[in-house]
Hints:
The structure is a homodimer.
Chain A: E1 4-8, E2 13-17, H1 23-29, E3 48-53, H2 61-70, E4 76-78, E5 88-91, E6 100-104, E7 110-113, E8 118-124, H3 136-144, H4 153-166, E9 169-175, E10 179-185, E11 193-199, E12 203-210, E13 216-223, H5 233-242, H6 244-269, E14 276-283, H7 285-292, H8 297-300, E15 314-315, E16 328-331, H9 341-349, E17 359-363, E18 367-374, E19 377-384, E20 404-410, E21 414-418, E22 426-427, H10 429-442, E23 457-461, E24 464-467, H11 468-491, E25 501-505, H12 514-519, E26 531-535, H13 537-547, H14 549-558, E27 562-564, H15 572-579
Helix pairs in contact in A: 5-6, 9-13, 11-15, 13-14
Amino acid sequence: MKKLSLEIVSRAxxxxxxxxxxxxxxxxxxxxxxxxxCRKRGVCGKCFVEIVRGDIPPPTEKxxxxxxxxxxxARSRLSCLYKIxxxxxxxxxxxxxxxxxxxxTTGLRMSVVVNPPVKKYLxxxxxxxxxNPASALELVEEGLKRKGLRVPLPLLRxxxxxxxxxxxxxxxxxxxxxxxxxxxxxxxxxxxYGIAIDLGTTTVVVELVDLQTGATVDLATAxxxxxxxxxxxxxxxxxxxxxxxxxxxxxxxxxxxxxxxIHEMGERxxxxxxxxxxxxxxxxxxxxxxxxxxxxxxxxxxxxxAVFSSLDEFPAIELGLELNExxxxxxxxxxxxxxxxxxxAGILASDLARRPGNFVFIDLGTNxxxxxxxxxxxxxxxxxxxxxxxxxxxxxxxxALPGAIYKxxxxxxxxxxxxxxxxxxxxCGTGLIDLLALFKKKGDIxxxxxxVPASRILPVTEGITITQKDVREVxxxxxxxxxxxxxxxxxxxxxxxxxxxxxxxxxxGNYLNVRNSQAIGLLPAIARKKIVFxxxxxxxxxxxxxxxxxxxKFLKKMIKSVTHVSLAADPEFQKKFIESLEFPEVDx
Amino acid sequence: MKKLSLEIVSRAxxxxxxxxxxxxxxxxxxxxxxxxxCRKRGVCGKCFVEIVRGDIPPPTEKxxxxxxxxxxxARSRLSCLYKIxxxxxxxxxxxxxxxxxxxxTTGLRMSVVVNPPVKKYLxxxxxxxxxNPASALELVEEGLKRKGLRVPLPLLRxxxxxxxxxxxxxxxxxxxxxxxxxxxxxxxxxxxYGIAIDLGTTTVVVELVDLQTGATVDLATAxxxxxxxxxxxxxxxxxxxxxxxxxxxxxxxxxxxxxxxIHEMGERxxxxxxxxxxxxxxxxxxxxxxxxxxxxxxxxxxxxxAVFSSLDEFPAIELGLELNExxxxxxxxxxxxxxxxxxxAGILASDLARRPGNFVFIDLGTNxxxxxxxxxxxxxxxxxxxxxxxxxxxxxxxxALPGAIYKxxxxxxxxxxxxxxxxxxxxCGTGLIDLLALFKKKGDIxxxxxxVPASRILPVTEGITITQKDVREVxxxxxxxxxxxxxxxxxxxxxxxxxxxxxxxxxxGNYLNVRNSQAIGLLPAIARKKIVFxxxxxxxxxxxxxxxxxxxKFLKKMIKSVTHVSLAADPEFQKKFIESLEFPEVDx
Lengths: 588, 588
C-alpha cells in the first residue's frame, strides 16, 4: 500500500495514513479533540476542516448547505465523511474542536467536554419519492442517519404540517441518540438549554445551562420552601409521615418553587420553557423522595431503606416541572439511603473515582457524608452530625445568611466578621468553629470542652454569647465526622498521613478555616495544602451530567461499585464516638 | 472428565452429559420444549422436573415455596437451577413444557409457543437488611433477578405500602424483560390478558386473549363505526382532510367503539380492565393513521407516503384505549403506504417468510394486497381493486351481511344462497364472482364482458339483477388483482405453475369458489389444491404478536426485508391492465 501522509498545519503535526482511512478518525487518533457531536454520521456539520493541500472531492448536498450557512471557505469538507485518497494537509478551525467547560471552579479545576445527552441537529428532510414512498418519519430518520427512533405521538401528529410549512428544513432534538424529543421549524440548533439543580435540605440552587456551549446562563439560589414544614430532614420526614396530604404538600411546595425559579430565569434571559429539554436533580435521598412524591416512612426507621436508588430518565412532566413538554428528568442516583445523589454528583464532579491516590471526600451538612477512595475502591458512609453546623440548637446559631458571624480572629481582642458586613445577629457554622478554636487556644475552653470561666458563658460580641450547651452540641457534631473519617480510614487500612488529599464539598467549605478546624479536631492534622475546598460539587456534578453523555454513563456504572458502610451498625462506633468528643490537646 | 448420563424417562431418551452442565439446557438440547418462561432465572417456577434417580440437592427457598404452592412431588427441582453432579434420570411433567396455541385454524394450521412480551411473576420480596439496606425497588429487582428495570412513578409511589400490606408477596407484571407495568398484591399470575384487533375499513374484530394459556377468551365483531363518515378508505381520508375536527371525530369514533367492545367482553368474562396489559392492532395504513389521530392528507396524493411505517410499543393510554393504566399498545408496522400492518400480520400468521417454496399471498378487499415469496425474498404491492368486491358501485351490491347472496350454483336453474338463509336482499362479493362465472358459462356474458341478451340485464332472483355496468365494475376489480399477480410473478421470474401455493386471506376467502374465481380470471388456473384460504390472517397475526415475544422480534426485522413494488409507477401496468380486462376464453 502506498505510504501517505496527513499534515495538520494548525498543530504542526505530520502523520502516516493509508488510502481509505477516515480523516476524522486520523485526526482523533492524533489526540486532537475533534467535535464528533453526531458520532461521525455527517449530520451535525461540526467537524469541518480546510483542505490546504490534496484531493478535494465535490461537496455533498449537506456539505454545501452547511458551508453556505456557516460561511466556511470553499476548500472545507466534513472530516467524518472524508476518505483519504492521497497525501494531504489540513487546517482545523477552532469551531471544529469539542468545547470544554469548567464544572468545578473552586479548589480543583475540573472541566468537561460538551457532549450532552440532548442534541440538536439541523435537517433538510427530503421529499418522498413515487417509486419508494418512505413515510415522513422514515425521511426524518434518513436525515438523522438513525433508525427506529422513538417519537411521541403528539409530535408525529404535527409532523406532516411541519414538513410542509418548512419545506423540510427543521431541527430535531434527540435524546440519547434514540428518542426524538422535539421537531422545530427552521434552525434552532443554537437554542438548547437544560437545568441543573442542587436540591439541598436548606438551600436550593438552580442553574440554567447552555447545552451547546456548556456555559452557565444564569443561577438562582433560594431557601428550600419546604423549610416551613420543618427545618431538617427528620422533621420533614415526620411531617410527611402523618398523612398523604402532608407528603403531597411537601412535593407541591418544592415543585412550585423550582418552577418559579426556572420561570424567572427563563424570563430574565428570554429563553422560553419550550427550549428547556432536560433537568438533572442532585439531592439527598430524602429531598429526592419528596420531590418524586414517594413515601419516606422507611427512611425514618431501621433499616432506613429508600424506595429507590436509581431511576432511568423519565418525562419531566411526571414531576410537574414546566419545561418543554417532552423534556426529560434525571434524578442523580443514590448510593444508599443516607448517601444520596448529591454525593454521587460530588464524586463525579471531583473525579474522585479516577483520581490517582488515596482521598477522603467530605460533604459537611446535617449529615456528614464521607467517601474514601483507595486504589480502585470507593467506600461511602453517612454520619448524623446533627444540625449544629447549620446553626440549629445553638443559642446564637443561624444559617449562613447576611449578619451571621462566619469568621473570627484573635488579635489583641476577638475580631468577628459577618456575611454582608452587617451588624452581627448570630453565628453560623464556620463562625462557631473559629470561635471554639480561639476560645480553646485562649484557655477559655478545656480540651474536654468545659468552659473555664465560672459564668459558663463566653461573650462574643454585643448580645451574642456561646454557652456550655452550645459547646456540647458542636462537640457532638465534630465527633460524628471525626469518628466517621477515622473508621473509614481504618476500613481502608490507612493513616491520615497516607492521604493524598481531603476534598471538602458544600458551600460550608468556602469559609471554613482549616487551621481552626484541625485545632478542634473536625479535620485530621495533615498538611494543610492537602485540604481542598471544592465548593458546591453537587451542583457541579448535576451540570456535568447535563452536559456529558459519557459522564452520565460513567456515573451510572460507578455508583454501583461504591461500597456502602453502615457505621451505626458497627459495634466499635459508640466507643470511638465517645473517644472523639474531646478536642485535640495541642493546636496544629 | 467422568462420563455421565441423563435419562428422560417420560420420553425414553438417554443422553451423555458432563458434570456442571445445566439440566434445563440439556433437556432443551434434546429438543424438548421446556418452559423457560423467565429465561432460566429460577423466577417463574415453570421448569420443574422430578428427579427419579440421582442427586437431589436440598431445595432453595423459592423451590420450597413453589413446590408447596403447586403441590409438586418432593423429588421435584427447577431444572434451570439444577447443576448436574452425577448420572440421573428425570420425569418431565406436562406442565413444565411450553404450551402451543393455534393461531390459524383455517386452511393452514399454524401454532405458536406461548411466550408473551407481557409476563407475570410471583415474588416473595425480601425485607431490607440493616447492614446493606437495599431500596424497595432493588429488592423487587432481586426477586426478579433483573436490574435497571424501568418503573412508572405512580407504581413506585405505591410500592412501600404494597410491600407492607402483602408482607412482600406480590405479582410483578413485566414488559419485554425491561419495564415493570404493574405490581399486584398476592398471586395474580393466572390473570394475564391482552387484546388483539383486526382493524378493517369495513369490519372490526376484537379478540380477548389469555396471555398465560394462549386461549381465545372471547371475540367480538362489529362494522367499523367510522363507516358513517364514509364507507371506504378514500371517502374517510377526504373527510379527515377537510378539518382537524373531522380527523378528531374519526379518531374518537373508532376509539370509543373499541373501548365499548373491550368493555363488553371484559364484563361478559369477569375480567377487569386492569388485567388487560397490552393491545396489538393490525390494520391498513389509513385505519392505523386514523386510530392514532395522524393526518392522512399525504395518503391521498402522490407519492402517497404515510406519516410512519413502524413505531415502538407505547402506552395504550395515549391512544385513549381503556386497559390497565400502564398497558402497552403495539401497532403492527406497515410495509409501505398501501401495504399496511394487516398484511404484515398476515405474512407472519401464514409463516410466509419461512415457508419453503414459492408463494403468492393475496388479501382481497378494496385494495388487493399481493405478496410474492420466492427463495428468501419477499415483494409486496397493492392494487386499487376498488370496492366492487365489497358490493359497492354494484346495482344490487351489498356487504357480506345477512340476506346477501354469497353463493350461486347452476343446476336446472340458477340456485342462490344467502347469508343467514334469509330472503335475498342483495349480492356480496363472492356471490358476484359465482354469478358472473355461471352467466359466462351459460353464454349470457361474452369473454369480453358483454351481456348477450338485448335487455343488457341479467335477472338473478326476484328484484335482483346484474347490469352491464355491474359486469364492467367487477371486470375492473378483477383486472387490478390479475395484473398485480401477473406482474409480481414476472418480477420473480415465475410462471403460475411454479407456485407451490396461493394463500388467500380475508373473511372474503371463506366463501370464495375457486373454480368460479379461476373461470373469471381472478385466480390463476393452477391446481386447485394449491389454493388455500387462511381466513382472517390479520387477526391471527395480531394474536401471535400478543402471545410471542420471538414472533414480534422476527416481524420487526422481517418487514424491513420486504421490497415494496409500486405497480402504478410501472409503465407496463396500464397495458397489462387493459389486457387483463377480458375473462378467460375457456373454463378451468
